[in-house]
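Appendix B. Extra example for self-study. Work through it before the problem class; the solution is given directly after the inputs so you can check yourself.
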Amino acid sequence: MNTFGLHLRVSTFGESHGKAIGCVMDGLPAGLKIDESRIAFECKRRSGGKSEFTTQRKEVDEIEILSGIFEGKTTGTPLAMIIFNQDIKSRDYADIKDIFRPSHADFTYFHKYGFRDYRGGGRASARESVARVAAGAIAKMLLEHFGIFCESGVYAVGGIEASEIDFEYAKKSEIFALDKEVELAQKNLIDEARRSHDSIGGSVLVRAIGKIPIGLGEGLYYKLDSALGSLMMGLNGVKAFEIGLGIKSAHKRGSQSNDCMDENGFLSNYSGGILGGLSNGESIDLRVHFKPTPSIFLPQKTRDITNRAVELKLKGRHDPCIAIRGSIVCEAMLALVLADMLLLNTNSKLEYLEKIYK
Amino acid sequence: MNTFGLHLRVSTFGESHGKAIGCVMDGLPAGLKIDESRIAFECKRRSGGKSEFTTQRKEVDEIEILSGIFEGKTTGTPLAMIIFNQDIKSRDYADIKDIFRPSHADFTYFHKYGFRDYRGGGRASARESVARVAAGAIAKMLLEHFGIFCESGVYAVGGIEASEIDFEYAKKSEIFALDKEVELAQKNLIDEARRSHDSIGGSVLVRAIGKIPIGLGEGLYYKLDSALGSLMMGLNGVKAFEIGLGIKSAHKRGSQSNDCMDENGFLSNYSGGILGGLSNGESIDLRVHFKPTPSIFLPQKTRDITNRAVELKLKGRHDPCIAIRGSIVCEAMLALVLADMLLLNTNSKLEYLEKIYK
Amino acid sequence: MNTFGLHLRVSTFGESHGKAIGCVMDGLPAGLKIDESRIAFECKRRSGGKSEFTTQRKEVDEIEILSGIFEGKTTGTPLAMIIFNQDIKSRDYADIKDIFRPSHADFTYFHKYGFRDYRGGGRASARESVARVAAGAIAKMLLEHFGIFCESGVYAVGGIEASEIDFEYAKKSEIFALDKEVELAQKNLIDEARRSHDSIGGSVLVRAIGKIPIGLGEGLYYKLDSALGSLMMGLNGVKAFEIGLGIKSAHKRGSQSNDCMDENGFLSNYSGGILGGLSNGESIDLRVHFKPTPSIFLPQKTRDITNRAVELKLKGRHDPCIAIRGSIVCEAMLALVLADMLLLNTNSKLEYLEKIYK
Amino acid sequence: MNTFGLHLRVSTFGESHGKAIGCVMDGLPAGLKIDESRIAFECKRRSGGKSEFTTQRKEVDEIEILSGIFEGKTTGTPLAMIIFNQDIKSRDYADIKDIFRPSHADFTYFHKYGFRDYRGGGRASARESVARVAAGAIAKMLLEHFGIFCESGVYAVGGIEASEIDFEYAKKSEIFALDKEVELAQKNLIDEARRSHDSIGGSVLVRAIGKIPIGLGEGLYYKLDSALGSLMMGLNGVKAFEIGLGIKSAHKRGSQSNDCMDENGFLSNYSGGILGGLSNGESIDLRVHFKPTPSIFLPQKTRDITNRAVELKLKGRHDPCIAIRGSIVCEAMLALVLADMLLLNTNSKLEYLEKIYK
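Solution. Structure tokens for the complete assembly:
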């Protein structure tokens, strides 16, 4: 299954060191104005090569739209996008051709599919996420047409957490830090990890704001939190996911975590904008936790494909903290989920159908 | 979408105070022996009325299999199960007919669907989970045939966490406590909450052990962690989900969270049995965090359906800590995901097809 | 796959001689008024026992709605219906327990699933179609709310074809004959077949009329003709399917089969209301061709489950011409496809979304 | 929905006069050897420009595989293929920019999506079928690995039908004629139609032979005949579909159309290789009927987008008989359906799972 979404279905294809990465979006309504520069802008936010805090692989991603647009607008037919791979250094991987990198997908892919695509992780590489971000840019244009906006930032690196949340600041920060006050300490932690040939974990805050209709989410198995959980937990390196108060809610009493209301609206947003699996109109707040990059440059005990124990000394180019670029991917996934839910919701009540057909 | 699973598809139907709750399982292989008493056993584990720690609603669930079984074995056709609702006290809800209970699905369902099914939460009630547990029992029989086992327990109530993990003990504990040493303290916390007309949050540990094949999980959008994240986050009251080290991995360095290997296997299981979205053969470890029951009996500020501010004083029967019964539901969901993945995996390589067709 | 539909998903379960037959409809909009007597009425049209032209098995189908309705209207949650089986004579089948009936599903089911459910065909029985008709009744209520109507009738038995098409007459005819003039000859053909312990084929005309919106149908693989082709070809005994001119169009020139237009609309309807896979607003005309009932009472050469050649002399109760009752099922399937397409179409253009969200 | 298949899912994208046409195949098992020249071969069979019997548009389709292959074998990840469009003459269409061509998708697409993509039919063009044929070539390699083969040919043009069926001859025939004896008469009919600026209908026979396992087909709504009916009826210009005896079976008695058996196997194949929606091991026989090309060069009454009546005189390049090239597309669709069914069937019984996991 390399497709997600129920009405707005996104399929991606491509390997890290193959010819191209791409995606096909099916189910977009016709008539949506597409600004191609916006897609480039979002992909650039995601791409590396910018600083010592992210990978040195230069992903100058040129996104080409192949179909689904006519005279600047969506046509209702599949919108396909393609990004040809560049700056591929498969040679980097020749040494580890037969060796499983610890905590990588190498080992499990080998056993599932019966062969070893050693070139940069193949399909399991985070490289694929550029297709998600390109698709996310389209979803954002749809959402923004209806006044809904998505934003993200890094709120924790290692143990160091933000106390203030400033999404505007995150946009300018090299590490997408949400809190200017702790940014330097967070950068230092990344730098130390990198210098000691190690890596570091981090956590991301993602948020949707604006005119979110009440009631987004579908049935019991495609609830809004369910769909978000699915896509966030499926991102490379993500090991935990929270909505609203998250884990903290498990420590509370009901009287401390219920969102009461008065005639002006909700008095709190502990639920993170979701009740009973449906949006309640408040801002949607998600926390996504990334493990440290498994590719580290310290010697590690592992096995080769013949099951012999070997010591691995990895080379190559890797992000010391995947949460940084991961935040942009999370933001794209949130946009894609909300866009799908917006489309699915048009059939929730007969009254809506009457607006169209009567 | 009231269906989940790709090959093994489970659809559920029914409302808390309607005629019946049921499920239809499609995609089961023919020839699996079904022990009906096992289904009853699992549903009994989930049902309330046992102690002061769970709801007083008596759910004496009699599960009837309607189809899909012939001479004690599955037939490959849809297996439908039905549970007629009993001990329904819809009157309890008459007072709150027009009032939204804080942090309940009432408010969002009303806006999405345009009406108020006030009878015990309707489709949004945790009552529906009996159908999941019945389906999970079938999934367990399939998994156990191949040597895979699922288990669960409560590891935290409020802030009080288990230090030892003993799944055998949990089976006998009234609150499914994993650690005998903290059980009493956990019970006291629940009791205090209940006595003060309040409720309390809790956390659950779910585990799969045994002969888990390496490689369960499908593509990039139906990874094992993704499917688990979807179903666990979709459970009523769940606000956070972790795999393996979970949030803690975001605080670590790579050298502290990578699972190294030698010729005998993995040296640790920080990843919780999942690498690159595929099972790695180790035990699968999940943590699921439940908020406190939103139904509390303290006065709360809320609104009625005409948007007037009102004060709510709730009556009725509710679990003071939904994590307890929730653990059984989590266990069922894990079994259902693994069963689906086991079936999907049979086409992963040509070699498998050759075993069947050549 | 015992589910069909993309937004309006219908799942059915149950075997001919099992406890019950049922269906679950997911994706209905909330707020649709449901007249339960209409469901009973449609199921009665389909049920046998009425005359010598259909089966003597008495299917007094009492349909019970289990969920998805509140105060007479749909709730947006799954609508489940159940029909408990009655008048089951499994003994009739004891003699053929180990013998494959020619041109029946017995042989293929046995090889696929590895066992023999001899009781009246099990899941492969046309008995299951009662669930389709019940679901179709709901779909009709949705369509009729928007001015769309479905109707059907038998236009050919054996080689004898109708020259006039009168759907009103078909409603009253014992064999749902569309043409009063040929009805007697058609009846005689059925009667002759029955008396000589044989059966006879027949053909059905199904039509949708009224305010069919232009544009129903989705993408290239869920075109309106594609969805109809799928469901009609999947009915028991159907061996051919035509839209509009059907096979005759393969004999024509373009100038003889194109539907021209003037300012008042189409000048012909050779296309049967579908262009490019989308409805064009004209009436939708389908022809569905049923083979003769395979259950005949003449001696036939066949095999038993040990592959020995045997002669079969069948007993039991069977329709001499399955096209008669089949017409009602076709009508239900047309309604279900159109209802699904009506729902899917609400997202075809941004303008529709603006009607709901702006 | 621009995706079909349940386990082997094929998604296509692209418009006739857009940048590219492509497809993504998801769900292929890893380890299948791919011969790229075979893909080119199949696409060349489908492409026009060969004779006066097909379009003059030169579709020199160069298919590029972008992903999913490593060292000549499938990897289990999505296999994407792309064909950049060439020889595009959008100018041809400038004159009809605002006019609906009779019996074309123009009219319905305009109303559904709210705009007019006049360039060669956009997504509704038969040009898209090159992606199907490329995907079909992959499916054939999988099937042939297991001894299953697909073939096709034209058996009727206008009213002139083949009496002999020779698939080997069809491969060499300019019009893929199955019967050498009637080929010339069929060619003449096409030629006459073309010379009188008209077009002509035709019919295709498609067949699968070889080691077809008994039991291919899934549940009641993804039966083998249902899936075939869906995809064949969804092809441009197809108005009727038959399996085995097809329409003729509606004229027969049961004793004339049942397939009896002895210890050596079936004594006839009236059912066309499908019983109860499952393959019975015999050859699968399908007939697909195409209407005449709607693009004719005679004056026709139609409307423009402002609903004014106009007379259309079409120019451009079109096949006089779409059934010819259509036969190759039908063959590809049959291969794709069978490949999907082969994969789905691996879970039909526990015994199969045991071969893999025990």
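Self-check: The longest strand of chain D covers residues 148-157. If your reasoning did not lead you there, revisit section 3.
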